[in-house]
Structures are given as C-alpha cells and as structure tokens.
From TrEMBL:
Substrate binds at residue 117. Belongs to the aldo/keto reductase family. Transmembrane segments: none annotated. Residues 22-267 form the NADP-dependent oxidoreductase domain. Keywords: NADP, Oxidoreductase. This is Oxidoreductase. Pfam families: Aldo_ket_red. Coiled coil: none annotated. SUPFAM superfamilies: NAD(P)-linked oxidoreductase.
C-alpha cells in the first residue's frame, strides 16, 4: 500500500496516536481462518487488524500476528491492533477483568485501540470509566466506542473525562449515518467503517458498477476509495487471499467530486444491526460470543 493520489496512509487521532486508514476486519471468521487471513494481510502491507471478543477469534488473530511478525521481521509496534469490550462484560470491574483475558487470548501486552462494542444502556458509563483507567495505565494506546448514536454519545461525553478517539459504525453506500458522522466530526472523533462494502446490495448497485467500469477497478475498490476520500478509516472483511490483496489496492486512483456525490446519493438508511436486535435492549437476538469448533473453551472469562 503506497501513499498516492493525495491520501495519507494514517490518520492522527484526537490523542495524537496515528492510526492506519485501511485495515482487515475478521467478523464471522473462525480462529484458523482468522490466523491465516491476518498473516496474509500483514505480509501484504496491512498494519491495522480489527477483532473483538464477540467474534470468538481473538486467539486466532493473535496467532496470525505472531506468525506474520516472525515471517516479516516486523515489530509489534509496526501494527495497530483493535479489539472490543463484549456487551456481556460491561460494568466497571467486569470490564477490567475482561480486558486482561483479551490480552491473554491475543497473546499481547497491550492493544492499540479498545472499543466498547455497543452501548449497553445502564452500563456503558461505568464501562467507559474502566476503559479510561486502562488508558491512563498505558494498557491501551487509545479508547473508543462502536455503534453509538448521537444521544448515547452525548450522554457519554457528559459523564466522561476522555473524549472517544474513534466511533466504529456500520457505514456503507446504503447506510451512511450522516447525522452521526457530522456529530462525530464536530467532536473530533474518528469515524471507522465496519461492513464498509454493504454486502451484495452495495456491490451490485448499478451506479457502483458504472464507476467500477469507469475507473477500471472492482466495485469493492470504488467503495473503499469513497470511504478514504471522506476521511474514514475502513476495515473490509475477507478470508480470501486474493480479495485481501485487492482491497488494499485503492491508493492509485481518485474518485471525482461528482462521483463521490453519486455514491452519497445511494443512502437508504439500511442498517444490518441496531439496538433492538439485541436481547440486552429488548430484542430477539441472543447476545453471545460466537463459538467455533476449533476453540470450544476459548471464551470462558
């Protein structure tokens, strides 16, 4: 990944820490696949790796990191590793305990960014205070949030000492969360896009397909470039070597202002997950850690 077309490979967070603009996500990836994907990604130039306890693959991610560092001769501080506080672990003491177990699974001494995965009502303030403690102790280089709407973000800011460095949101052409993006930009909080490709609906959109043909790029590359030109950090998920490599090839072209506006016009507000989808918020989805056959006892905190 080379710096081209006026884009920096990193962004500077509100605490001065530099974060890569493009990384690898590993949601819905078992430990063996995660280890392989992480190793390949790092060897091919990725420096940002994003996981979570929820994904059930922190052990695999840690293994992939260790293997890649050995293979490439890179150092741990060459990478930016993100993981997340599980909803079921929220609360002050339980957050501190959960973080120590996360470090053990990753086999790391620190993480670069620790995110609160979702704002569990009644608990997220206490959880944030514990995360502030981890930050002050130097166990994490930055702390942030994920999936926070403006109402919950404002409540957090009213009861916290540290402004989140990042808000990781589901943002893609069909779900752009424009009000949240505007508020986060105003507060100096970096937006990071999860599910940036928006699944098959975004990738197959006729306007995206036209732009892919125009720029001689894939639909995924067009969308990721759109993310980067809007100042986002973006973490496409793939377990296929070819796509991992392809997704990083987005620094040698630039979308025109008109083409950016075209994609901006595709917003349908179609979220794949929101608060009512979780049992902790009155929904029907059981909020549990994903479990994989290759690590049946991996997440007994």
């Amino acid at each position: 990944m080379k710096r081209e077309q006026g884009l920096e490979l990193t962004t500077t967070l509100n605490n001065g820490v530099k974060m890569p603009r493009l990384g690898l996500g590993v949601w819905k990836t078992d430990n063996a696949s995660a280890a392989h994907s992480v190793k390949v990604a790092i060897e091919k130039g990725y420096h940002l790796i994003d996981t979570a306890k929820q994904y059930g693959n922190e052990t695999g991610v840690g293994k992939g990191i260790k293997e890649a560092l050995k293979e490439t001769g890179m150092n741990r501080n060459d990478l930016f590793v993100t993981t997340k506080l599980f909803n079921g672990d929220q609360g002050y003491d339980s957050t501190l305990h959960a973080f120590e177990n996360t470090l053990k699974r990753l086999d790391l001494t620190y993480v670069d960014l620790y995110l609160m995965h979702w704002p569990v009502d009644g608990k997220y303030i206490d959880s944030w205070k514990a995360m502030e403690k981890l930050y002050r102790e130097g166990k994490v280089r930055a702390i942030g949030i994920s999936n926070f709407d403006n109402k919950r973000l404002q409540n957090l800011l009213n009861h916290s000492d540290i402004v989140p460095a990042v808000n990781q949101m589901e943002t893609n052409p069909i779900n752009q969360e424009k009000d949240i993006v505007e508020t986060n930009n105003h507060d100096g909080i970096q937006i990071e896009a999860w599910s940036p490709l928006g699944g098959g609906e975004s990738l197959s959109d006729p306007e995206i397909q036209k732009l892919a043909k125009k720029y001689n790029k894939s639909a995924a590359q067009v969308i990721l470039r759109w993310d980067l030109q809007r100042g986002f950090v973006t973490i496409p998920k793939s377990s296929h070597d070819k796509r991992i490599i392809e997704n990083s090839d987005v620094f040698d072209f630039e979308l025109s202002d008109d083409d950016v506006k075209t994609i901006n016009g595709l917003d349908k507000g179609k979220r794949s997950l929101w608060y009512n989808d979780f049992a902790w918020h009155g929904g029907k989805t059981v909020d549990d850690v994903d479990k994989w056959d290759d690590s049946p006892a991996n997440y007994k905190d």
